[in-house]
Structure formats: structure tokens, C-alpha cells
Design goal:
This is Proteasome accessory factor C. The protein is of the alpha+beta class. It has nine helices and 13 strands. It folds into four domains: 85 residues, Arc Repressor Mutant, subunit A; 36 residues, no CATH class; 74 residues, SH3 type barrels; 76 residues, Alpha-Beta Plaits. Helix content is 35%, strand content 24%. Strand 11 and strand 12 form a beta hairpin.
Length: 329
């Protein structure tokens, strides 16, 4: 026995119709079955919506509906061929359009997303950019998106992951220690503006996270990756160890979710308008970028070496501004 379909609530029905009408106009001619598959609803729901659309419109100056004030469909095609053809529509063309600069800004953001490894060859993003260009009030300005320094490395890393090949590269860690590494790439992760390679490092004989902008002389070798069946790969970038440093900080409540990967435990204490929590970090150097990425939202409380490291790093940055001369005129 087929379960009875639950009726849509009025707000849901309105949202559905607002999505269906532009879709039908764009398609020009489409079968009921295709429309139902596109929206993931029963075919009868599409037919009911089409009948409702045909009774919808915008009243004229007199406040009454004339023949041209209502949607109209090709009833012969609908009733005989189960096809939907809107032959007259109203009000849709009066919808506000994006300004050219607004569309350009959105297109620039989509271009950046399309350049990311996980979005390579995305037809959905390309289609959306074309719709923004076509729907803008004027032709959007062309914007060039600067290629991040890590992009070339990300391309090679992605090729290595796809091809199942080992990588060799020079790596400089946060402590300033460098060395040549050989690794089996597992996956690419991102945190804020930084990209990381999660890989099985043959030098350390364990899974390690490598920040892509600290990698250089990257080579995709012909050596295939080893069989890592059963290898436990951490879900997060940060994994604790017995040598980690505990750092007490006061953080704004809205910024706490951004520190979730570094929390030593779930305990918090209310200190004024801030929450006092304990972070667990591999070393104090990682704290600098963490605090700098949340300006005004995180205050380091303890230990003293952590406070000193962050203060010295911030002071060095300020001195850089003071030493920079600005040419007159």
C-alpha cells in the first residue's frame, strides 16, 4: 500500500511555487516527469502546481484580473502530452536584478571556489557564474583572482592523490626546522586561509599534517603509495600528545567554536564577558597565528612563556609598520 503523501503547508507551497515558476520559464518545454524528478516530488504535485500557476497573476490598474494579467499555459500540451509550456507569464520580469558590481563580486568569489582542488571541473559553479552574468542589470566587470602561492602545490598534490603516487618535498616546520620528506598523500584539508596535506610520512613512519605553504621543491614521484588499509587517519588537523603545551585563554563566546579543535576539554569558566578555556597546542609558536587570526577575541592568560611569545610577535609586527617609510606625494 502506497503511503499517503503529506500535504505541504502554505509557506512550503509558496516556496515551491517560487522555485518552480522560474524553472519552467527557463526550460520553456518540459515534461511533468522531468520536472518531478528535478524537484524530487510526485508527478501529481507538479500537475497541481501548474493548475495553480494558471490561476495566478497580477491585477491591473483597475484592481481586476484581465486576460493578460494571469499566467497562461499550453493546455493541449499539458493535458494530451503531459508537457508544461508557459505561453504567458507576468511579474517575473519585474524582479529586481543584481547590480553589475554585485554580480562581479559574487562571480569573483565563485571563481575562487572553482579553483580549489575539491571543486575542480565543477559544472554547477560554472553554470551559476553564467546565470549571474546573464541576470545582472549590466555586464559585470571582469575581475582577476590572484592565484595563491599554494595553488601550484595543491595542483601537484591533487594529481598525486588521484594517481596514487608518492610525494617528495622540502618542509620547514613551525620551529624553523627543515628537511626533505617522502610521504604518501592521503587527503587535502583547509583551516581558515591555510591548506594542509594529510599524509603518511615515511621519514617519521606515521601520519603527519603538512602546511602546504611551508612545502617547497615538491616532486610527484613514480613510486606508488603503500597499502594503508587499516591505517587510522585522524578526522581533525590537530591531534594531542603527551608533550603538548596547555595554554589558558579568555575567549569571546562567539569565537569559541573556531577553537574547537584545540580545546583540552569541555570545561569553561565565565570571566566577565569572556569564557576561560584551556587550549592544547604542540608548541607555543602555533599560538601566535591562532591569536592573530582572532584579533580582539582571544587573550592569553597563562603560561607566562605563551604570553611573552605572543606579545613579542605582535610587537615585532608593529615595529615593521613603524620602520616602513611612505614616500611623499
Amino acid at each position: 500500500m502506497t503511503p499517503r503523501r503529506q500535504a505541504l503547508r502554505a509557506p512550503d507551497k509558496l516556496v515551491f511555487l517560487l522555485s518552480l515558476v522560474p524553472y519552467l520559464i527557463e526550460q520553456q518545454v518540459i515534461g511533468v516527469d522531468e520536472a518531478a524528478a528535478h524537484f524530487g516530488v510526485p508527478e501529481e504535485q507538479i500537475r497541481e502546481a501548474v493548475r495553480l500557476i494558471a490561476m495566478s497573476g497580477l491585477p491591473g490598474d483597475t484592481g481586476t484580473y484581465q486576460s493578460n494579467d494571469l499566467f497562461d499555459i499550453d493546455w493541449d500540451a499539458f493535458e494530451d502530452g503531459d508537457e508544461i509550456v508557459i505561453v504567458h507569464h507576468v511579474a517575473i520580469d519585474e524582479a529586481p536584478r543584481l547590480a553589475a558590481r554585485e554580480a562581479a563580486a559574487l562571480i569573483a568569489g565563485l571563481q575562487y571556489l572553482a579553483a580549489l582542488p575539491e571543486n575542480a571541473d565543477s559544472t554547477a559553479l560554472a553554470s551559476l557564474m553564467e546565470k549571474l552574468r546573464a541576470g545582472a542589470s549590466a555586464t559585470p566587470s571582469g575581475l582577476a583572482i590572484a592565484e595563491p602561492a599554494a595553488d601550484a602545490s595543491l595542483t601537484s598534490i591533487r594529481a598525486a592523490i588521484t594517481g596514487g603516487r608518492q610525494l617528495e618535498f622540502d618542509y620547514l616546520n613551525a620551529l624553523g626546522e627543515g628537511g626533505r620528506r617522502r610521504a604518501d598523500p592521503l587527503r587535502i584539508l583547509s583551516q581558515d586561509a591555510d591548506w594542509y596535506l594529510q599524509a603518511f610520512c615515511h621519514t617519521r613512519d606515521d601520519v603527519r599534517n603538512f602546511r602546504v605553504d611551508r612545502m617547497s621543491a615538491l616532486v610527484v614521484t613514480d613510486e606508488p603509495v603503500a597499502d594503508h588499509t587499516g591505517l587510522e587517519v585522524p578526522e581533525t588537523l590537530f591531534q594531542g600528545s603527551s608533550s603538548d603545551l596547555d595554554v589558558v585563554v579568555d575567549v569571546a563566546a562567539e569565537a569559541l567554536p573556531l577553537l574547537a579543535d584545540y580545546l583540552a576539554d569541555s570545561s569553561t569558566a565565565q570571566i566577565g564577558d569572556r569564557l576561560r578555556v584551556t587550549l592544547r597546542l604542540a608548541h607555543v609558536h602555533g599560538l601566535k597565528r591562532l591569536v592573530a587570526g582572532l584579533p580582539g577575541l582571544v587573550t592569553v592568560v597563562a603560561p607566562a612563556e605563551a604570553r611573552t611569545a605572543v606579545a613579542d610577535w605582535a610587537s615585532a609586527g608593529l615595529r615593521g609598520y613603524e620602520e616602513t617609510s611612505v614616500p611623499e606625494g
